[in-house]
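Morning!

This is the sequence you dropped in the shared folder:
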Amino acid sequence: MVSEKKNPINIRPEDRELIFHSNHSKYAEGLVEQTFSNVFVTRSGIGLKNFKLVQSTIPHYAGKRQHFLKYALYQYFFRKRKKLKGNYVLIHNHWCPGFFHWVTEALPRLMRAQESVGNGYKLLLPETFAGYPVDSLAPFDVIVESLPYRRNAVVEKLLIPENTRYTAEYDVDSILKLRNRYHQHLHKSKLDNVKPGSKIYISRKQAKNRKVINEEEVIAYLHEKGFEVVEFENYTFWDQVSIMYHAKVIISIHGAGMTNQTFMPAGGYILEFQKRPEKPENFSNIYLKLANILGHNYLYQFCEPDDPDASIYEADLRVDIEILQNNLTVIKV
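The structure's back. C-alpha cells below.
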C-alpha cells in the first residue's frame, strides 16, 4: 500500500506545509469498467449517450462538466462521425496524447480493460495519435481502429474503463503492473539497447518554456558527478523505456519527462527542480506521488524563477549549484 504522506528524503521543516497539501494522499479507488451500446464518442474521448455525458469518460473538475457537455454536443451536431460495428475499448481522454496523461491514465485503463475482458475489443484511437502512443501498445497485443482526422464515432459496443477523478489520483495497482509488463516486453523483444548510464539529467532544452536558465553550469557540474544528459525528444518510446530501466538517479526540472520514472526499477532517486510555491496549492506533487507509488526516493529543490509572476508550468528557473551539491550528498553520488 502507498504511504499516504511519504516525506521527500530531503524535506525541510519549513517546507512541510507547502508540500503536503490536501490532495497528497488521494489515490483512485473503486474504478469500474462499463459497456455502452450505440454511444457517441468525440475524437478527444468524451462519451455522449442520449445527449448526456458518459461520466466515466471525463474527469471531475469543478465547473468543467458543462464545458465538456457543450463541446460534445457541438461535435455531435456539427462534425462528421464514423459508425463502427463490433466491440471497442476507449482509453484516451481530453488531455491525451500528452505524455504524462497517456502513461499514467490511458495505459492503466487499457491494463484494466484487458484484465476484465481480454483481447476481444479493438482499441479506438484518433489517427493523430501516431508515434509514442501507438509504439507503447506493443506489450498489449491490441488491434487499433484509427479515427480519421476531425472525425468522431458512433460505436455499436464500447467498453469504457473509468477515468480517475482527478489528474495524479493514480490507479496504483495498474501502474505497478504496467511497469512489470514493460520490463518483460523490453527483454522479450530485445529492445534493451540504449544505456547511457545509471545517472541521468533530463534536459528541456528543446521545450518552449520551463527551462533551466543556467543549464550549462548545471550540466558541467553534473558531468563531474558522472551524469549523462538526455533530451527525450531525440529518442523513441522504447529507447526511453530502456534508458529508464538502467537509471538509478534522474534529475529534471518539472516536466513530462519525469513521467518516465514509471519505467525505472523500484528504489531509484528522483530530484525535481520546481519554482517555490507561494501557497500549498501551487506546489505540484504529481511526481512526488508517482515516486511514492513506484517505490522511489523523491527529492525536491526549489529554484528562483526568471519571471516571478510565471506559474510553475511556465517559469524558467535558475538552479543554485550549492543546494544541488547538498542534494546529491543526500543521494550519495
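Headline: The chain is about 30% helix and 20% strand.

More detail when I'm at my desk.
O.
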